[in-house]
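quick one before i forget lol
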Amino acid sequence: MPALTVQERLTLKGRAHQLKPTVMIGNAGLTESVLAEIERTLKLHELIKIRVMAERPEREAILGEICTRLDAEPVQHIGKILVIFKPNPDAHKIEIRRMPQHKGKKPLTKKQLGNR
């Protein structure tokens, strides 16, 4: 799967803002059962948030391992929350497209996008 562009990543961050974490990784770390649950959730939703209760270096390692083993793309790592995206051709719930622009030169502001 090709890496996400900056514009696609920004779009996915905006969509993930309203999501609640669907999977939580506790003290046991990334086990096979947790990885299987993440895979099932990714197939269903395509874009998920994961809460990880570990220190920062461990969270970065967990994010890398999830993405490599499930062939997913990291979208964001902020605090104890990881946002991961994996497109599912069967479900295809999330369509990544470029941000709409005015007919002029400037892109639309957040307020203008909210009014659409």
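fyi The mean pLDDT is 86.
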